[in-house]
Amino acid sequence: MPETTSSFDRPLRVRFAPSPTGFLHVGSARTFILNWLFARHNGGDLVLRLDDTDVERNTDASVQSIFEGLKWLGLNWDEEYKQSERLQLHREKAEEIFAKGFAYRDFTPAHAGDEKTSSAQGAWLFNPGMREMSREESDRRAAAGEPFALRYRVPRSPDSGVARMLHFNDSVYGAQSKLANEVEDFALLRSDGMPTYHLASCADDADLRISHIIRGQDHLTNTFKHILIFEALGAEPPQFAHLPLLVAPDGTKLSKRKHGAVVSVTTYRDAGFLPSAFVNFLCLLGWSPKNDLEFLSIDELTALFTLEGVNRANAVINFSDADPFDPKAVWLNAEHIRALPVDQLSECLAPFFKQAGFNASPEKTLAVAPLIRERIKLLGDAPAAADFFFLPELAPYDPAELIPQKGDAALAMRVLKLAQEVLATTAFDHDSLDAALRAAAAQLGLKAGPMFQPIRVAVCGRKNAPPLFETMVVLGRDVCLDRIRKAEANLQPLL
Protein backbone atom coordinates (compact mmCIF):
# COMPACT_ATOMS: atom_id res chain seq x y z
CA MET A 1 0.00 0.00 0.00
CA PRO A 2 1.41 3.41 -0.91
CA GLU A 3 2.24 5.86 1.84
CA THR A 4 -0.60 8.15 2.83
CA THR A 5 1.56 11.10 3.76
CA SER A 6 2.88 13.34 1.05
CA SER A 7 6.55 13.89 0.47
CA PHE A 8 5.68 17.38 -0.72
CA ASP A 9 7.41 20.17 1.12
CA ARG A 10 4.20 22.10 1.70
CA PRO A 11 1.46 22.24 4.35
CA LEU A 12 -1.14 19.50 4.34
CA ARG A 13 -4.38 20.86 2.88
CA VAL A 14 -7.39 18.87 1.72
CA ARG A 15 -10.66 20.01 0.22
CA PHE A 16 -14.27 18.91 0.04
CA ALA A 17 -15.90 20.15 -3.15
CA PRO A 18 -19.62 19.30 -3.42
CA SER A 19 -21.77 20.36 -6.37
CA PRO A 20 -25.04 21.94 -5.18
CA THR A 21 -27.34 19.98 -7.46
CA GLY A 22 -29.37 18.20 -4.76
CA PHE A 23 -29.39 17.25 -1.09
CA LEU A 24 -26.20 16.18 0.68
CA HIS A 25 -25.62 12.58 -0.41
CA VAL A 26 -24.37 10.07 2.18
CA GLY A 27 -21.45 9.31 -0.12
CA SER A 28 -20.53 12.99 -0.21
CA ALA A 29 -20.88 13.15 3.55
CA ARG A 30 -18.48 10.24 3.93
CA THR A 31 -15.98 11.96 1.63
CA PHE A 32 -16.23 15.10 3.76
CA ILE A 33 -15.78 13.12 6.99
CA LEU A 34 -12.73 11.22 5.76
CA ASN A 35 -11.15 14.43 4.49
CA TRP A 36 -11.84 16.00 7.89
CA LEU A 37 -10.32 13.06 9.76
CA PHE A 38 -7.25 13.02 7.53
CA ALA A 39 -6.71 16.76 8.03
CA ARG A 40 -7.24 16.68 11.78
CA HIS A 41 -5.17 13.52 12.28
CA ASN A 42 -2.24 15.14 10.47
CA GLY A 43 -2.66 18.70 11.73
CA GLY A 44 -3.72 20.04 8.34
CA ASP A 45 -6.46 22.29 6.97
CA LEU A 46 -9.80 21.42 5.38
CA VAL A 47 -11.15 23.67 2.65
CA LEU A 48 -14.86 23.66 1.78
CA ARG A 49 -15.38 24.67 -1.84
CA LEU A 50 -18.76 24.69 -3.55
CA ASP A 51 -18.23 23.58 -7.14
CA ASP A 52 -21.17 25.64 -8.36
CA THR A 53 -20.19 26.50 -11.94
CA ASP A 54 -22.96 24.31 -13.42
CA VAL A 55 -25.45 27.20 -13.34
CA GLU A 56 -28.25 25.22 -15.02
CA ARG A 57 -28.35 22.57 -12.28
CA ASN A 58 -27.33 24.48 -9.16
CA THR A 59 -30.10 25.58 -6.80
CA ASP A 60 -30.23 27.64 -3.63
CA ALA A 61 -32.17 24.81 -1.97
CA SER A 62 -29.29 22.44 -2.69
CA VAL A 63 -26.76 24.87 -1.23
CA GLN A 64 -28.90 25.17 1.91
CA SER A 65 -29.27 21.39 2.15
CA ILE A 66 -25.51 20.86 1.87
CA PHE A 67 -24.76 23.38 4.61
CA GLU A 68 -27.53 22.02 6.84
CA GLY A 69 -26.14 18.50 6.49
CA LEU A 70 -22.53 19.52 7.10
CA LYS A 71 -23.38 21.67 10.11
CA TRP A 72 -25.44 18.82 11.58
CA LEU A 73 -22.39 16.55 11.41
CA GLY A 74 -20.66 18.98 13.75
CA LEU A 75 -17.31 18.91 11.93
CA ASN A 76 -15.86 22.30 11.12
CA TRP A 77 -13.79 23.47 8.19
CA ASP A 78 -11.04 26.07 7.97
CA GLU A 79 -11.73 27.97 4.73
CA GLU A 80 -14.74 28.36 2.46
CA TYR A 81 -15.03 29.28 -1.24
CA LYS A 82 -17.47 29.27 -4.13
CA GLN A 83 -16.17 28.44 -7.58
CA SER A 84 -18.69 30.85 -9.10
CA GLU A 85 -16.79 33.67 -7.40
CA ARG A 86 -13.49 32.55 -8.93
CA LEU A 87 -14.41 32.52 -12.64
CA GLN A 88 -11.82 35.17 -13.48
CA LEU A 89 -9.07 32.92 -12.11
CA HIS A 90 -10.36 29.97 -14.15
CA ARG A 91 -10.38 31.98 -17.37
CA GLU A 92 -6.91 33.34 -16.68
CA LYS A 93 -5.62 29.80 -16.19
CA ALA A 94 -7.31 28.70 -19.40
CA GLU A 95 -5.60 31.53 -21.27
CA GLU A 96 -2.29 30.56 -19.68
CA ILE A 97 -2.68 26.96 -20.86
CA PHE A 98 -3.67 28.16 -24.35
CA ALA A 99 -0.74 30.55 -24.55
CA LYS A 100 1.67 27.72 -23.70
CA GLY A 101 0.29 25.65 -26.58
CA PHE A 102 -1.37 23.06 -24.36
CA ALA A 103 -4.84 23.90 -25.69
CA TYR A 104 -6.58 24.89 -28.93
CA ARG A 105 -9.83 26.50 -29.99
CA ASP A 106 -12.55 24.21 -31.29
CA PHE A 107 -15.08 26.07 -33.43
CA THR A 108 -17.16 22.96 -34.08
CA PRO A 109 -20.87 23.74 -33.55
CA ALA A 110 -22.23 22.25 -30.33
CA HIS A 111 -22.47 18.46 -30.44
CA ALA A 112 -21.22 18.33 -34.03
CA GLY A 113 -17.97 16.74 -32.93
CA ASP A 114 -19.65 13.82 -31.24
CA GLU A 115 -19.68 11.76 -34.42
CA LYS A 116 -16.06 12.44 -35.35
CA THR A 117 -13.84 9.40 -35.17
CA SER A 118 -10.09 9.12 -35.07
CA SER A 119 -9.44 5.64 -33.73
CA ALA A 120 -9.97 2.09 -34.86
CA GLN A 121 -12.59 1.62 -32.17
CA GLY A 122 -14.54 4.65 -33.39
CA ALA A 123 -14.35 6.59 -30.11
CA TRP A 124 -14.08 10.35 -30.56
CA LEU A 125 -10.72 11.54 -29.28
CA PHE A 126 -10.06 14.78 -31.18
CA ASN A 127 -11.03 16.76 -34.25
CA PRO A 128 -7.95 16.98 -36.49
CA GLY A 129 -9.34 19.94 -38.38
CA MET A 130 -9.52 22.00 -35.21
CA ARG A 131 -6.46 20.60 -33.43
CA GLU A 132 -4.19 21.26 -36.42
CA MET A 133 -5.61 24.67 -37.34
CA SER A 134 -2.95 27.34 -37.52
CA ARG A 135 -2.79 29.90 -34.74
CA GLU A 136 -3.36 32.66 -37.28
CA GLU A 137 -6.59 31.08 -38.57
CA SER A 138 -7.73 30.37 -35.01
CA ASP A 139 -7.09 33.99 -33.95
CA ARG A 140 -8.90 35.33 -37.04
CA ARG A 141 -12.04 33.27 -36.39
CA ALA A 142 -12.04 34.13 -32.70
CA ALA A 143 -11.62 37.85 -33.45
CA ALA A 144 -14.58 37.63 -35.83
CA GLY A 145 -16.75 36.54 -32.91
CA GLU A 146 -17.14 32.91 -33.89
CA PRO A 147 -17.95 30.88 -30.74
CA PHE A 148 -15.52 28.18 -29.70
CA ALA A 149 -14.73 25.76 -26.94
CA LEU A 150 -11.19 25.57 -25.61
CA ARG A 151 -9.83 22.02 -25.59
CA TYR A 152 -6.74 20.53 -23.99
CA ARG A 153 -4.23 19.32 -26.57
CA VAL A 154 -3.62 15.84 -25.16
CA PRO A 155 -0.15 14.64 -26.28
CA ARG A 156 -0.44 12.10 -29.09
CA SER A 157 2.00 10.03 -31.03
CA PRO A 158 1.89 9.03 -34.69
CA ASP A 159 0.84 5.49 -35.46
CA SER A 160 4.45 4.40 -35.69
CA GLY A 161 5.63 6.36 -32.64
CA VAL A 162 5.82 5.55 -28.98
CA ALA A 163 2.71 6.68 -27.13
CA ARG A 164 3.14 8.64 -23.95
CA MET A 165 2.07 6.87 -20.77
CA LEU A 166 0.31 8.91 -18.09
CA HIS A 167 1.04 7.87 -14.49
CA PHE A 168 0.00 8.71 -10.95
CA ASN A 169 0.14 6.88 -7.64
CA ASP A 170 -3.12 6.58 -5.74
CA SER A 171 -2.96 6.18 -1.95
CA VAL A 172 -5.76 3.59 -2.06
CA TYR A 173 -5.65 1.95 -5.49
CA GLY A 174 -1.90 2.08 -6.03
CA ALA A 175 -0.04 2.79 -9.29
CA GLN A 176 -2.30 3.92 -12.13
CA SER A 177 -1.35 4.33 -15.78
CA LYS A 178 -3.05 5.03 -19.10
CA LEU A 179 -1.94 5.76 -22.63
CA ALA A 180 -2.33 9.43 -23.48
CA ASN A 181 -3.61 8.29 -26.89
CA GLU A 182 -6.70 6.92 -25.10
CA VAL A 183 -7.66 10.28 -23.55
CA GLU A 184 -9.86 12.61 -25.58
CA ASP A 185 -9.09 16.27 -26.09
CA PHE A 186 -11.32 17.38 -23.26
CA ALA A 187 -12.84 20.83 -22.95
CA LEU A 188 -11.44 23.47 -20.60
CA LEU A 189 -13.87 26.26 -21.49
CA ARG A 190 -17.31 25.83 -23.01
CA SER A 191 -18.42 27.95 -25.93
CA ASP A 192 -20.20 30.32 -23.49
CA GLY A 193 -16.90 30.96 -21.73
CA MET A 194 -17.78 28.97 -18.62
CA PRO A 195 -15.09 26.65 -17.27
CA THR A 196 -15.61 22.92 -17.25
CA TYR A 197 -15.38 20.86 -14.10
CA HIS A 198 -11.87 19.70 -15.02
CA LEU A 199 -10.42 23.18 -15.46
CA ALA A 200 -12.17 24.85 -12.53
CA SER A 201 -11.33 22.04 -10.14
CA CYS A 202 -7.64 21.90 -11.02
CA ALA A 203 -7.21 25.68 -11.21
CA ASP A 204 -8.69 26.02 -7.73
CA ASP A 205 -6.74 23.07 -6.33
CA ALA A 206 -3.50 24.64 -7.56
CA ASP A 207 -4.38 28.15 -6.39
CA LEU A 208 -5.57 26.94 -2.96
CA ARG A 209 -2.41 24.85 -2.54
CA ILE A 210 -4.29 21.59 -2.01
CA SER A 211 -1.78 18.89 -1.09
CA HIS A 212 -4.10 15.84 -1.04
CA ILE A 213 -7.28 15.14 -2.97
CA ILE A 214 -9.49 12.52 -1.30
CA ARG A 215 -12.60 11.81 -3.36
CA GLY A 216 -14.82 9.04 -4.71
CA GLN A 217 -13.54 6.23 -6.90
CA ASP A 218 -15.79 7.45 -9.71
CA HIS A 219 -13.27 10.26 -10.25
CA LEU A 220 -10.34 7.89 -10.67
CA THR A 221 -10.32 8.07 -14.49
CA ASN A 222 -10.65 11.88 -14.42
CA THR A 223 -7.31 12.06 -12.66
CA PHE A 224 -5.38 11.39 -15.87
CA LYS A 225 -6.88 14.57 -17.32
CA HIS A 226 -6.18 16.45 -14.14
CA ILE A 227 -2.49 15.61 -14.01
CA LEU A 228 -2.24 16.98 -17.57
CA ILE A 229 -3.83 20.26 -16.43
CA PHE A 230 -1.49 20.52 -13.43
CA GLU A 231 1.41 19.91 -15.81
CA ALA A 232 0.24 22.70 -18.10
CA LEU A 233 -0.13 25.04 -15.13
CA GLY A 234 3.38 24.24 -13.96
CA ALA A 235 1.94 23.01 -10.65
CA GLU A 236 2.90 19.91 -8.72
CA PRO A 237 -0.12 17.59 -8.65
CA PRO A 238 -1.58 16.77 -5.23
CA GLN A 239 -1.42 13.25 -3.84
CA PHE A 240 -4.61 11.45 -4.88
CA ALA A 241 -6.64 9.01 -2.81
CA HIS A 242 -9.86 7.60 -4.20
CA LEU A 243 -12.50 6.10 -1.94
CA PRO A 244 -14.56 2.99 -2.73
CA LEU A 245 -18.11 3.69 -3.78
CA LEU A 246 -21.16 3.24 -1.58
CA VAL A 247 -23.61 0.81 -3.13
CA ALA A 248 -27.12 -0.48 -2.47
CA PRO A 249 -27.78 -4.10 -1.39
CA ASP A 250 -28.14 -5.08 -5.06
CA GLY A 251 -24.66 -3.73 -5.81
CA THR A 252 -25.81 -0.66 -7.75
CA LYS A 253 -24.31 2.72 -6.97
CA LEU A 254 -26.35 4.69 -4.45
CA SER A 255 -28.37 7.15 -6.47
CA LYS A 256 -30.59 10.04 -5.47
CA ARG A 257 -32.78 9.29 -8.48
CA LYS A 258 -33.10 5.53 -7.91
CA HIS A 259 -32.98 5.17 -4.13
CA GLY A 260 -34.52 8.47 -3.02
CA ALA A 261 -34.44 9.85 0.50
CA VAL A 262 -32.44 6.95 1.95
CA VAL A 263 -29.26 8.44 0.47
CA SER A 264 -29.86 11.91 1.95
CA VAL A 265 -28.06 12.94 5.13
CA THR A 266 -31.11 14.89 6.32
CA THR A 267 -33.17 11.69 6.28
CA TYR A 268 -30.91 10.26 8.99
CA ARG A 269 -30.98 13.52 10.93
CA ASP A 270 -34.77 13.72 10.85
CA ALA A 271 -35.14 10.07 11.92
CA GLY A 272 -33.11 10.74 15.04
CA PHE A 273 -29.55 9.66 14.38
CA LEU A 274 -26.93 11.33 16.52
CA PRO A 275 -24.25 13.08 14.45
CA SER A 276 -21.52 11.16 16.27
CA ALA A 277 -23.18 7.83 15.46
CA PHE A 278 -23.73 8.75 11.83
CA VAL A 279 -20.11 9.82 11.45
CA ASN A 280 -19.05 6.56 13.13
CA PHE A 281 -21.20 4.53 10.72
CA LEU A 282 -20.04 6.27 7.56
CA CYS A 283 -16.39 5.89 8.53
CA LEU A 284 -16.79 2.12 8.71
CA LEU A 285 -18.06 2.01 5.12
CA GLY A 286 -14.85 1.27 3.26
CA TRP A 287 -12.44 1.95 6.13
CA SER A 288 -11.33 -0.27 8.99
CA PRO A 289 -9.35 0.81 12.06
CA LYS A 290 -6.39 -1.33 13.02
CA ASN A 291 -7.98 -2.24 16.35
CA ASP A 292 -11.11 -3.61 14.59
CA LEU A 293 -13.38 -1.69 16.96
CA GLU A 294 -16.72 -0.45 15.63
CA PHE A 295 -18.12 1.83 18.33
CA LEU A 296 -15.81 4.83 18.15
CA SER A 297 -16.05 8.46 19.26
CA ILE A 298 -15.00 11.36 17.04
CA ASP A 299 -11.78 11.71 19.04
CA GLU A 300 -11.02 8.01 18.65
CA LEU A 301 -11.72 8.13 14.91
CA THR A 302 -9.43 11.13 14.55
CA ALA A 303 -6.60 9.39 16.39
CA LEU A 304 -6.97 6.16 14.40
CA PHE A 305 -7.65 7.36 10.87
CA THR A 306 -5.13 6.67 8.12
CA LEU A 307 -5.59 6.10 4.42
CA GLU A 308 -3.92 2.69 4.79
CA GLY A 309 -7.16 1.50 6.39
CA VAL A 310 -9.27 2.39 3.33
CA ASN A 311 -10.40 -0.68 1.39
CA ARG A 312 -10.65 -0.97 -2.38
CA ALA A 313 -13.92 -2.92 -2.43
CA ASN A 314 -17.19 -1.01 -2.68
CA ALA A 315 -19.08 -0.66 0.61
CA VAL A 316 -22.71 -1.77 0.93
CA ILE A 317 -25.38 0.17 2.82
CA ASN A 318 -28.07 -2.36 3.72
CA PHE A 319 -31.64 -1.13 3.57
CA SER A 320 -35.03 -2.24 2.28
CA ASP A 321 -38.53 -0.85 1.83
CA ALA A 322 -39.50 -2.29 5.21
CA ASP A 323 -36.31 -1.20 6.99
CA PRO A 324 -34.86 1.99 5.47
CA PHE A 325 -31.76 2.14 7.68
CA ASP A 326 -28.74 -0.14 7.81
CA PRO A 327 -28.97 -2.32 10.96
CA LYS A 328 -25.37 -1.48 11.87
CA ALA A 329 -26.18 2.23 11.67
CA VAL A 330 -29.14 1.75 14.00
CA TRP A 331 -27.09 -0.36 16.42
CA LEU A 332 -24.31 2.22 16.51
CA ASN A 333 -26.84 4.96 17.13
CA ALA A 334 -28.27 3.08 20.11
CA GLU A 335 -24.75 2.67 21.48
CA HIS A 336 -24.02 6.38 21.09
CA ILE A 337 -27.33 7.26 22.76
CA ARG A 338 -26.41 5.14 25.76
CA ALA A 339 -22.96 6.74 25.95
CA LEU A 340 -24.28 10.29 25.75
CA PRO A 341 -24.37 12.30 29.01
CA VAL A 342 -27.95 12.68 30.21
CA ASP A 343 -27.99 16.46 29.89
CA GLN A 344 -26.85 16.22 26.25
CA LEU A 345 -29.35 13.46 25.53
CA SER A 346 -32.08 15.62 27.01
CA GLU A 347 -31.17 18.45 24.64
CA CYS A 348 -31.26 16.04 21.70
CA LEU A 349 -34.68 14.67 22.69
CA ALA A 350 -36.31 18.08 23.16
CA PRO A 351 -37.03 18.83 19.47
CA PHE A 352 -38.53 15.37 18.95
CA PHE A 353 -40.84 15.83 21.93
CA LYS A 354 -41.80 19.27 20.65
CA GLN A 355 -42.52 17.89 17.17
CA ALA A 356 -44.78 15.27 18.78
CA GLY A 357 -46.77 18.04 20.45
CA PHE A 358 -45.68 17.25 24.00
CA ASN A 359 -45.60 19.99 26.62
CA ALA A 360 -42.13 18.94 27.72
CA SER A 361 -40.29 21.34 29.99
CA PRO A 362 -36.49 21.11 30.08
CA GLU A 363 -36.70 19.81 33.66
CA LYS A 364 -39.13 17.03 32.80
CA THR A 365 -37.24 16.09 29.64
CA LEU A 366 -34.07 15.82 31.73
CA ALA A 367 -35.89 13.53 34.17
CA VAL A 368 -37.33 11.33 31.41
CA ALA A 369 -34.12 10.99 29.36
CA PRO A 370 -32.34 8.41 31.58
CA LEU A 371 -35.55 6.34 31.88
CA ILE A 372 -35.95 5.76 28.14
CA ARG A 373 -32.34 5.77 26.88
CA GLU A 374 -32.10 1.95 27.00
CA ARG A 375 -35.44 1.65 25.17
CA ILE A 376 -34.74 3.68 22.04
CA LYS A 377 -32.44 3.16 19.10
CA LEU A 378 -33.22 6.42 17.33
CA LEU A 379 -34.16 9.75 18.83
CA GLY A 380 -37.28 9.48 16.71
CA ASP A 381 -38.34 6.48 18.83
CA ALA A 382 -38.51 8.65 21.95
CA PRO A 383 -42.04 10.11 21.61
CA ALA A 384 -43.58 6.63 21.39
CA ALA A 385 -41.43 5.39 24.28
CA ALA A 386 -42.24 8.37 26.50
CA ASP A 387 -45.73 9.52 25.49
CA PHE A 388 -47.30 8.51 28.83
CA PHE A 389 -45.02 10.97 30.63
CA PHE A 390 -46.47 13.92 28.73
CA LEU A 391 -49.98 13.15 27.46
CA PRO A 392 -52.83 14.23 29.75
CA GLU A 393 -54.67 10.97 29.01
CA LEU A 394 -53.23 7.54 28.31
CA ALA A 395 -53.85 6.00 24.95
CA PRO A 396 -56.50 3.22 25.14
CA TYR A 397 -55.07 -0.13 26.27
CA ASP A 398 -56.47 -3.61 26.79
CA PRO A 399 -57.77 -3.85 30.40
CA ALA A 400 -56.72 -7.51 30.40
CA GLU A 401 -53.11 -6.33 30.61
CA LEU A 402 -53.87 -5.17 34.15
CA ILE A 403 -54.28 -8.80 35.23
CA PRO A 404 -51.08 -10.42 36.54
CA GLN A 405 -49.90 -13.73 35.13
CA LYS A 406 -51.55 -16.58 37.06
CA GLY A 407 -54.00 -14.09 38.51
CA ASP A 408 -57.47 -12.81 37.73
CA ALA A 409 -59.36 -9.54 37.52
CA ALA A 410 -60.31 -9.69 41.18
CA LEU A 411 -56.64 -9.91 42.18
CA ALA A 412 -55.77 -7.01 39.93
CA MET A 413 -58.54 -4.97 41.52
CA ARG A 414 -57.25 -5.69 45.04
CA VAL A 415 -53.76 -4.59 43.98
CA LEU A 416 -55.03 -1.34 42.52
CA LYS A 417 -57.15 -0.48 45.56
CA LEU A 418 -54.33 -1.14 47.99
CA ALA A 419 -51.90 0.76 45.77
CA GLN A 420 -54.14 3.81 45.97
CA GLU A 421 -54.15 3.66 49.76
CA VAL A 422 -50.38 3.29 49.92
CA LEU A 423 -49.57 5.99 47.36
CA ALA A 424 -51.87 8.49 48.99
CA THR A 425 -49.74 8.59 52.13
CA THR A 426 -46.24 7.45 51.10
CA ALA A 427 -43.44 9.91 50.40
CA PHE A 428 -43.05 10.12 46.62
CA ASP A 429 -39.42 9.20 46.15
CA HIS A 430 -37.84 6.01 44.79
CA ASP A 431 -36.84 4.34 48.06
CA SER A 432 -40.10 5.15 49.86
CA LEU A 433 -42.23 3.87 46.98
CA ASP A 434 -40.10 0.74 46.69
CA ALA A 435 -40.44 -0.11 50.38
CA ALA A 436 -44.14 0.74 50.63
CA LEU A 437 -45.26 -1.22 47.56
CA ARG A 438 -43.16 -4.26 48.46
CA ALA A 439 -44.76 -4.21 51.92
CA ALA A 440 -48.18 -3.99 50.25
CA ALA A 441 -47.31 -7.02 48.10
CA ALA A 442 -46.44 -8.98 51.23
CA GLN A 443 -49.74 -7.89 52.78
CA LEU A 444 -51.56 -9.45 49.81
CA GLY A 445 -49.32 -12.50 49.84
CA LEU A 446 -47.85 -11.62 46.45
CA LYS A 447 -44.39 -11.48 44.95
CA ALA A 448 -43.21 -8.21 43.50
CA GLY A 449 -44.07 -9.09 39.87
CA PRO A 450 -47.82 -9.72 40.31
CA MET A 451 -48.03 -6.61 42.51
CA PHE A 452 -46.18 -4.26 40.18
CA GLN A 453 -47.71 -5.28 36.82
CA PRO A 454 -51.22 -3.86 37.41
CA ILE A 455 -49.72 -0.64 38.76
CA ARG A 456 -47.29 -0.34 35.81
CA VAL A 457 -50.04 -0.83 33.24
CA ALA A 458 -52.32 1.55 35.12
CA VAL A 459 -49.82 4.44 35.19
CA CYS A 460 -48.03 3.78 31.88
CA GLY A 461 -50.68 2.12 29.74
CA ARG A 462 -48.37 -0.77 28.84
CA LYS A 463 -46.53 -3.73 30.30
CA ASN A 464 -43.14 -2.80 28.92
CA ALA A 465 -42.16 0.51 30.45
CA PRO A 466 -39.20 2.12 32.24
CA PRO A 467 -38.45 1.22 35.89
CA LEU A 468 -41.66 1.63 37.87
CA PHE A 469 -40.57 3.72 40.85
CA GLU A 470 -38.51 6.20 38.84
CA THR A 471 -41.41 6.54 36.43
CA MET A 472 -43.90 7.20 39.20
CA VAL A 473 -41.66 9.86 40.73
CA VAL A 474 -41.54 11.71 37.39
CA LEU A 475 -45.31 11.38 36.89
CA GLY A 476 -46.09 12.56 40.41
CA ARG A 477 -48.58 11.45 43.01
CA ASP A 478 -51.72 13.09 41.55
CA VAL A 479 -51.23 11.67 38.05
CA CYS A 480 -50.49 8.17 39.36
CA LEU A 481 -53.58 8.13 41.62
CA ASP A 482 -55.79 9.46 38.85
CA ARG A 483 -54.60 6.82 36.38
CA ILE A 484 -55.03 4.01 38.91
CA ARG A 485 -58.63 5.10 39.55
CA LYS A 486 -59.30 5.07 35.82
CA ALA A 487 -57.68 1.63 35.58
CA GLU A 488 -60.15 0.36 38.20
CA ALA A 489 -63.00 1.56 36.04
CA ASN A 490 -61.46 -0.11 32.96
CA LEU A 491 -61.09 -3.35 34.89
CA GLN A 492 -64.64 -3.42 36.23
CA PRO A 493 -66.21 -5.17 33.20
CA LEU A 494 -63.76 -8.09 33.59
CA LEU A 495 -64.80 -8.93 37.16
Structure write-up:
With 495 residues, this protein is mainly alpha-helical. It has 4 domains: 109 residues, Rossmann fold; 102 residues, Glutamyl-tRNA Synthetase, domain 3 (Alpha-Beta Complex), CATH 3.90.800.10; 51 residues, Helicase, Ruva Protein, domain 3 (Orthogonal Bundle); 96 residues, Arc Repressor Mutant, subunit A (Orthogonal Bundle), CATH 1.10.10.350. Helix content is 44%, strand content 10%. It is built from 20 helices and 12 strands. It has a 3-stranded parallel sheet. Strands 4-5-8 form a 3-stranded antiparallel sheet. Strand 9, helix 7 and strand 10 form a beta-alpha-beta unit. The N terminus is likely disordered.
Defining traits:
495 residues; mainly alpha; Rossmann fold; Glutamyl-tRNA Synthetase, domain 3; Helicase, Ruva Protein, domain 3; 4 domains; 3-stranded parallel beta sheet; 3-stranded antiparallel beta sheet; elongated
